[in-house]
Amino acid sequence: MSQTVITTAFERWKAAQAVSGEAVTLDEFVFANVPDLDTDAPIDRNEVLPDAVQIVHRQAVSRTGVVNENAVVYSVVLGAETGDFAFNWIGLVNRNSGTLAMIVHAPLQQKIKTTAGQQGNVLTRSFLMEFNGAQTETAIDTPAETWQIDFTARMAGMDERQRLENIDIYGAGAFFGNGWLVGKTGSQYFVTSGSGYVAGLRAELAENQNITVTTRPVKVWLDVSWRGTLTSAWAVEPKITVAASLSDYEIDGIPHYVFALASIDADGNITDLRPRGTLSEQQARNVYLRQDRNLGDLPDVERARENLQLGKLALLDNIGFADVGAVPARGSLNDMNLNDITGSKYGFWYQSTIVNATPELNYPVASAGALLVFQNGANGPDGCTQEFRPYMSNVVYRRYYNKTASTDFAWSSWGYDISNVGGTINGAVGIIKNGAPLLIRSETQNQAVYILGQDYDKSNLYYIGRGGATFDVSFVSYKGGNHILLAADGAVKIYPSNGRDVLSSTRFVPTDYSNFDSLYQSKKTAVTAVRLGAAKDVSNGNGNLTDQSGYVLTMGGDFGANDGSYRMRPLQYLINGTWHNAVSA
């Protein structure tokens, strides 16, 4: 009996080719005659090429072809011109690297060459190599059926006939007991073990299988295909898929048939969609009502009630909000995150404790209160608007949950309408109006009224306005400790702090300089010029001289007996534009 194996050397070399991005190329067959070869014993995957003396023939690969994405075929034709030799060992190699990829141990075979008077033989040997991604890694894209005999055509036809006959019995889908039933434990969804038919293919699930559900609403699908290889047994390959929609498809020539096992709504509720039993049993359930089900097998309860002319509430033990079109009273929010209360949970909710009203749970304010959730008619059942009404407050906070064609669902920030008793605006405000668009008025007489500016941490920065009972108006900086006061008596006062100056990039220009002038020394006592005043002649006939305070002698003379005279001029100085006579000189 022949033995076949893929070598470990090939696996290492294939990995290296993948790293370097090079194709996996196998291009030569090697034939050898190995003495004492046991064809029944398993082949060592570490086996190497036989000794050169045992190799009887080497020949390039004649044809390659792809069977499917994970299987390729290599063939060689030993023509009548090749021979004579015997072989019991065949290897497939990469000629450049010498890598031995695949080995066959077979009973001894003869290859005879055609010679004069003797007809030789023609042998074809093919290797089917299977590994993940074989078609991609070998870069082989020629279908094998283009050069090999399609001996599987009839068998495929037999399989298809059997599948269609099963559809006649089981329909598009049929399940037995709890086989393939979708269930839920806590938050974990799972599919129950059992059997069923999809498109005539019988699928078996040996044990319960957990599934991951990330978005809702969604459906759970059973995907089946009839798969195998050229040399293996064929079997149904089932696969569970969670998707909103799915239809039959084909990959690499293999048809895949799908059937919805269950639907899961936005709240996580499961609806079983499995037809149970054979097609005849399914049809019988649609035609007849079973006594032991006590009308529990009615397919459409509402239509049945209408046909019996029952009122909307007839025979209902409990009236629900949906029965009368009411907005549901949902109950306490407790520690629920408000981001989880979307449109599918519309209605009235309440929060009874401030402990749970935290920013982490996306409350707009730390307060007990009521939450109203209503669907906004957009983006399916989840699109909604939330209104939160704090306890003992007439402020209503509002936000919406929506999505666009280019964005996923997202919550807007909380906003609210300002009431006539105050509030906070979290955003820029523009006022476009002539006249006085902003009015600030005190509530009672002789009270402060001002605009207060604060930092992000609510510490005071400044205020502008009336700071107390007086009518003075101030511009005060808390950080600098300085301010400007517009006094009610008309005075303007500037109060710097910390010994700092009052600075101006231009001159102060008063209408009255007297106050300024009085502060300068040169305007008070400084002498800016000196001169002699008008001349005064004094006679000296009696020989006596007269001294006059503030005058200086400029000239004099004696012109005879009793006729002498002299001339004096007053000493004058200039102070602040005025000439003054010196008291004495």
Automatic annotation (TrEMBL):
<feature type="domain" description="Tail fibre protein gp37 trimerization region">
    <location>
        <begin position="436"/>
        <end position="526"/>
    </location>
</feature>
<feature type="domain" description="Phage tail fibre protein N-terminal">
    <location>
        <begin position="3"/>
        <end position="158"/>
    </location>
</feature>
<dbReference type="Pfam" id="PF12571">
    <property type="entry name" value="Phage_tail_fib"/>
</dbReference>
<dbReference type="Pfam" id="PF20744">
    <property type="entry name" value="gp37_trimer"/>
</dbReference>
<protein>
    <submittedName>
        <fullName>Uncharacterized protein</fullName>
    </submittedName>
</protein>
<dbReference type="InterPro" id="IPR048388">
    <property type="entry name" value="Gp37_trimer"/>
</dbReference>
<dbReference type="InterPro" id="IPR022225">
    <property type="entry name" value="Phage_tail_fibre_N"/>
</dbReference>
